[in-house]
Amino acid sequence: MKDILLTTLRDAKTPIELFRKSADQLASALAVESGQFFTKIKKPVQTPMGETSGIYAQEKPYLAPILRSGLALLSSFLRSYPEAPVGHIGIRRDEKTALPCPYYSHLPSIASNHLIFLLEPMIATGQTACAAVDILQRAGAQLSQIVLISLL
């Protein structure tokens, strides 16, 4: 199904309503699959039938969309991680040099147990994503905490 959704996004003839729906469906699939990046730990859990062993994530999610395109992924990730802090990173491309120009950063405190999902739907040269990683690192993130999430 993901390949069909991706083709729908790439097709220049796709109407805007279908584009938005397909982007949301694909983002939801990415949000669910992002769970693979968490370190899983076993802990006891009390169920109505008694105690058993459960699986928990060792890290806590942290969402960082790159404005504005990353906002297309944010709602799907918030459905999967409603408790996650959300930071915003604004980066535009300089018209003359094509280099990324950061213009805004609002990042809640980054803890050592955060797994940071950097949300950037489209990657061309990767320079914007690299600039965002630099901003996250200057805010206290370790490179090992950052996972880049992209559609294309």
Order of strands in the sheet with the most strands?
5-4-3-6-7
Largest sheet: 5 strands, mixed
Q: Which sequence of SSEs, written as H and E, runs from N to C?
A: HHEEEHEEEHE
Q: Sum up the overall morphology in one term.
A: flat
What multimeric state do the chains show?
Answer: single chain
From the N-terminal CA to the C-terminal CA, the straight-line distance is 15 Å
| Backbone CA Rg | 17 Å
Estimate percent helicity: 25-40%
- Report the mean per-residue pLDDT as an integer: 94
Spans of at least 5 consecutive residues whose pLDDT stays below 50 are none
How many H/I helices? 4
Number of strands: 7
Break the fold down into its secondary structure elements and pairings.
Blueprint: H1 2-10, H2 16-33, E1 40-47, E2 50-57, E3 60-67, H3 71-80, E4 88-93, E5 100-106, E6 114-119, H4 127-138, E7 146-149
Helix pairs in contact: 1-2, 2-3
Relevant terms:
flat; 152 residues; single chain; alpha/beta; 31% strand; 4 helices; two-stranded antiparallel ribbon
Summary?
With 152 residues, this protein is α/β, with parallel strands linked by helices. The protein contains four helices and seven strands. The chain is flat.
Protein model, in words:
- With 152 residues, the protein is an alpha/beta fold.
- The chain has helices at residues 2-10, 16-33, 71-80, 127-138; strands spanning 40-47, 50-57, 60-67, 88-93, 100-106, 114-119, 146-149.
- A hairpin with a 6-residue loop joins β4 and β5 (100-106).
- The two termini are 15 Å apart.
- The model has no long low-confidence stretch (mean pLDDT 94).
